[in-house]
């Protein structure tokens, strides 16, 4: 399963808020065997949100959008997603009923709080107010980290892929000296290879086949100077 993550917010692009949501989502998706192919941040503009969602939903199995939910003037994510999917926004009766069952009076809710794209499935906000939505493999989650995490866990089972196996080899050599051996490794084994330099070079191997990873790591350890 291949997924794109889209985070929304002018404050992210201005550097005023650190985008921890994308990192957390990537980790959780990776744990479930899902490959994240894109992480993109867009401003609070309907056109930008719609364009990116449309592009990514055509390329990947699912798009997760986080941020910009609620009834305030700059909460435009639902508008953007609705535009991308060619849907209107309308009051979602199930979302409204759920909030009322959980102690909220509809008269106290700001106008637009439960407006979701027509036909969407409401994703209830267990630790906040604004609901999320799921429609046509597009999932819309809040931007508040605690709300986003809690909501994602309610849909986590909808994201899965084959388990990934990893091995790490730490080499006491310059990264430039390892180029040919890493190329031979890639040619000889069906593994993904990443090298990360520092005081030493950490070489990460990954595959959906555990035996292949172990064989590749063993081959490499015999051919590099280990820390």
Class by alpha and beta content: alpha/beta
Strand content: 25-35%
What's the average pLDDT? 95
Number of strands: 11
Q: What is the CATH topology descriptor of the largest domain?
A: Molybdenum Cofactor Biosythetic Enzyme, Chain A
The amount of helix comes to: 25-40%
For the biggest sheet, the summary is: 6 strands, mixed
How do the strands of the widest beta sheet line up side by side?
Answer: 2-1-3-8-7-6
Number of helices: 8
Number of domains: 2
Structural Rg: 22 Å
* CATH architecture term of the largest domain: 3-Layer(aba) Sandwich
CATH top level assignment of the largest domain: Alpha Beta
Classified in CATH, the superfamily of the largest domain is: MoaB/Mog-like domain
Order of helices and strands: EHHEHEHEHEEEEHEHEEH
Identify the overall geometry. elongated
User: How far do the termini sit from each other?
Assistant: 36 Å
Describe the protein's architecture and organization.
The protein is α/β, with parallel strands linked by helices. It folds into 2 domains: 2-158, 3-Layer(aba) Sandwich (Molybdenum Cofactor Biosythetic Enzyme, Chain A), CATH 3.40.980; 165-221. Helix content is 36%, strand content 25%. It is built from 8 helices and 11 strands.
Provide key terms for this protein.
8 helices; alpha/beta; single chain; 6-stranded mixed β-sheet
Set down the secondary structure blueprint.
Blueprint: E1 2-8, H1 10-13, H2 20-31, E2 35-42, H3 46-59, E3 62-66, H4 77-85, E4 89-91, H5 93-101, E5 115-117, E6 121-123, E7 132-135, E8 138-141, H6 145-155, E9 165-171, H7 179-188, E10 192-197, E11 201-207, H8 210-221
Parallel strand pairs: 1-2, 1-3, 3-8
Antiparallel strand pairs: 4-5, 6-7, 7-8, 9-11, 10-11
Helix pairs in contact: 2-6, 3-4
């Amino acid at each position: 399963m291949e997924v794109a993550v889209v985070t929304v917010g002018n404050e992210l692009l201005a550097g005023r808020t650190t985008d921890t949501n994308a990192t957390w989502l990537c980790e959780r998706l990776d744990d479930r065997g899902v490959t994240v192919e894109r992480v993109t941040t867009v401003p609070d503009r309907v056109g930008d949100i719609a364009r990116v969602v449309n592009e990514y939903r055509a390329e990947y199995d699912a798009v997760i959008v986080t941020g910009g939910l609620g009834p305030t003037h700059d909460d435009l994510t639902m508008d953007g997603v609705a535009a991308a999917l060619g849907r209107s926004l309308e009051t979602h009766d199930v979302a409204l009923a759920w909030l009322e069952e959980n102690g909220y009076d509809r008269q106290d809710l700001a106008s637009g709080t439960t407006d979701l794209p027509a036909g969407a499935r409401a994703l209830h906000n267990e630790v906040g107010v604004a609901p999320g939505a799921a429609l046509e493999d597009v999932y819309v989650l809040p931007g508040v980290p605690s709300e986003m995490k809690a909501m994602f866990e309610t849909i986590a089972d909808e994201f899965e892929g084959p388990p990934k196996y990893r091995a790490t080899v730490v080499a006491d050599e310059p990264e430039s000296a390892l180029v040919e051996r890493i190329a031979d490794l890639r040619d000889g084994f069906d593994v993904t290879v990443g090298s990360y330099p520092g005081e030493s070079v950490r070489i990460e191997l990954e595959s959906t086949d555990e035996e292949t990873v172990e064989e590749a790591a063993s081959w490499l350890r015999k051919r590099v100077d280990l820390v």
